[in-house]
Amino acid sequence: MSIEQKFSLEQRSAFYGALADPARLSIVDMLVLGDASPSELQRRLSISSNLLAHHLGVLERAGLVHRSRSEGDKRRTYLRLEPTALEVLVPTSSPLAVTRIVFVCTHNSARSQLAAALWNKQSHIPAASAGTHPAPRVHSGALAAARRHDLPLDATRPADVADVLAPGDMVIAVCDNAHEEMRENPNSLHWSIPDPARTGSAAAFDRAFDDIDHRVARLAPHCLPNGELS
Please, are residues 142 and 105 in contact by the beta-carbon 8 Å criterion? Predict the structure, then answer.
């Protein structure tokens, strides 16, 4: 389906109009590969909270970003780029030199396990997973979701992030609690993916699977094995 068929001229005009400001274009670029809270965006942009709120309002009204409430700190919200935005816009993102990716969630029993398996299926850069408070075993719902989607899931026993992380690893927190508990660093991303174990339904695990799969497919082309980035 072409862009002209899927988006009206008015919608496309609103998209481009919303980006007619360097700060708003920078926000979209920051959200291409991961999610961020308003306070995180404010620190990166070094602008006032009032000005940031104005820019976010413009982007939200144009349908480019939306926000969700953190599953950890309920006072916090996260901004994420609407998937449809990438179908009409091509925000820039510099290549990333990566040695290994470690996906982290609280229990290392579902989202991070699925993320590592999906990454290893799509990229030659190795991936591992860990938890800030690892569970005794991998969640049965994650194993069932992997089977439904024909994903080979070599479900390792949940591991503590302190035992897995090594210098130079790129960290991707796939849940709000893990992101808020871990110290933010320049070599990290956050994917605000709702915990499917809260309901335990097959539909919830499938939604998490699809969200992670989409994000992995978006990030993988931007990553090069460390040493190949000239």
Answer: no
User: What percent of the residues of the chain are helix, what percent strand, and what percent coil, each to the nearest 5?
Assistant: 45, 15, 40
- 184-193: pLDDT as tens digits: 777 899 999 9
Quote the pTM value: 0.80
| Alpha-carbon gap, residue 28 to 228, rounded angstroms | 27
Burial classification of residue 139, based on how many CB atoms lie within 10 Å of its CB (0-12 exposed, 13-18 middle, 19 or more buried):
buried
- C-alpha torsion angle, residues 130, 135, 140, 144 (rounded to 10): -10
Mean pLDDT of 17-46: 93
Q: What is the largest CA-CA distance in the chain?
A: 53
Amino acid at 87: E
What is the C-alpha separation between 195 and 190, in angstroms, rounded?
14
Query: Which tens digit of pLDDT belongs to each residue from 157-178?
Result: 899 999 999 999 999 999 999 9
- Mark out the alpha helices in the chain (DSSP H runs): 3-6, 9-18, 22-31, 38-45, 49-61, 85-88, 111-122, 140-148, 161-164, 176-181, 202-219
3-state secondary structure 157-175: CCCEHHHHCCCCCEEEECC
